Amino acid sequence: MPALAVATVPxxxxxxxxxxxxxxxxxxxxxxxxxxxxxIDTGSLVVATAFGPVASPAGVASVxxxxxxxxxxxxxxxxxxxxDTVTALDRSSYAVIGSISVGIDPSAxxxxxxxxxxxxxxxxxDTVTxxxxxxxxVTATIPxxxxxxxxxVHPSSFLVxxxxxxxxxxxxIDxxxxxxxxxxxxxSSPIGLAITPDGSTLYVANNGADTxxxIDTxxxxxxATIRVGxxxxxxxxxxxxxxxxxxNNGADTxxxIDTxxxxxxxxxxxxxxxxxxxxxxxxxxxxxxNTGSDSASVIQVLNSMSPNRGPMSGGTTVTITGTNLASTTxxxxxxxxxxxxxxxxxxxxxxxxxxxxxxxxxxxxTGGTSNPKPFFYYxxxxxxxxxxxxxxxxxxxTVTIRGDLLDTATRVFFGEIPAIxxxxxSEEIQVTAPVAITAxxxxxxxxxxxxxxxxxxxxxxxxxxxxxxxxTSGSMFGGAVIAVTGRELATTxxxxxxxRTARFSVVSDTQLAVVIPSAIDTxxxxxxxxxxxxxxxxxTGWTYM
Length: 545
Fold this sequence. Notes:
Blueprint: E1 4-10, E2 15-20, E3 26-31, E4 36-41, E5 46-51, E6 57-62, E7 75-80, E8 85-90, E9 95-101, E10 106-111, E11 117-122, E12 127-132, E13 137-143, E14 148-153, E15 159-164, E16 169-174, E17 179-184, E18 190-195, E19 201-206, E20 211-216, E21 221-227, E22 232-237, E23 243-248, E24 253-258, E25 263-269, E26 274-279, E27 285-290, E28 295-301, E29 304-306, E30 309-311, E31 317-321, E32 330-333, E33 336-337, E34 339-343, E35 347-351, E36 358-365, E37 368-369, E38 373-378, E39 382-387, E40 390-392, E41 398-404, E42 411-414, E43 417-419, E44 421-425, E45 428-432, E46 440-448, E47 451-452, E48 456-461, E49 465-469, E50 473-474, E51 481-487, E52 494-497, E53 500-501, E54 503-508, E55 511-515, E56 523-525, E57 527-531, E58 534-537, E59 542-544
Parallel strand pairs: 30-38, 40-48, 50-59
Antiparallel strand pairs: 1-28, 2-3, 3-4, 4-5, 6-7, 7-8, 8-9, 10-11, 11-12, 12-13, 14-15, 15-16, 16-17, 18-19, 19-20, 20-21, 22-23, 23-24, 24-25, 26-27, 27-28, 29-31, 31-35, 32-33, 32-36, 34-35, 36-37, 36-38, 39-41, 41-45, 42-43, 42-46, 44-45, 46-47, 46-48, 49-51, 51-55, 52-53, 52-57, 54-55, ...
């Protein structure tokens, strides 16, 4: 683990929650004691301004970048424990947009990956509130365990997690039904939650046991326990998923966990009583709210460059950290100068120029030229096919994408909604389709180290409905032709009568013509229709006579 440098930034009184903006140029600190949200310029490490007034802000969340519609990108949500509300803020104009009544003593808020829903843990009413971010209205209130303190959203499935501090558990919420689907027990005063970018693992800070529980999200079971500092509070995961950062409220430190070995590899001293924590999208800076010292600590990993790869066309925003960088005059990718966007004593932000192969990146200051760091230029990937070409509007089905140079894929976009891919090979990736905003055809594209691929068409289909049959009985020898009526039937791929497959033709989106197959015995069996949107069964079955 490289050395850690810690800078301290004064903020408001009793800071608690932390959120870093989607492109990493601003960090937001919720000051519960001074009714404001401090805005830290991550380049200069000074407080640029402060939002307010907010009665007693406890948690803060930024809407992810590239959500749909794009007007949501400028929003910031603050859990206000002093007024039992969530305040919506415009992070561009620093203006308060509105206030949303939620449960008692909201302590944390998080925005889902699509940006269309926000989830709020209400410590005083043992509930989680669901907010529609398009309308800023409450769509559901979900009972969970006692004193929920934090909430996390799975990046690609329907699951939301709530840490119940006084129940020693985590509630697993199915966001398709807005109900608790499972409970993870065996924890100890869990406060902080964070989930890895691939969604496979949930990290839980056990404030009562000085440990972090590693939860396998496929089994909803504890897979490992890691000893950290005294009274662990907040948890954040690096964008690459290889590091977890845990604030130790009783030890005034941050534990750095290697998620591959599941062990603590470094401990950074910070301010007094650290609580909230978040990681810059570059992964090279960690922001910590120190409740006991009215400050924010900024932990920087030195002598690094991230990302270290990008498309041959250039245009990648690259963050370089080191020492004595304030007098930088040039950053070169081999012999080509990069555009410098920002510089501090410990950090540079530059834009990569076009290139091919591996470029050696050097920094020139008034003191000389640095050692080189490699930057890898990648050709653009290509999508050739999607399988299937359609799926249910509720998402959660697996889509296989085939093409070329896909092994560096980091995101798959269904329209503007991102999903995390699983790499099978350079020619194939798989992804879980996210929930659709509306049914219909949308473009699907893949973001790789070489840029974003041209898109292919994918169609979201609503769940079918079967309302009736023109006839409900006939000979066990089959052969009867009946009309099946309903809705969303145009993509029908299979009709079964009992356990037998029936021949059919699509008449329209509301009607099928079905030939009843023969049967072995008399009796009533179900008639089922399968489409790209799912499966539906007729309200009355077919009776063989």
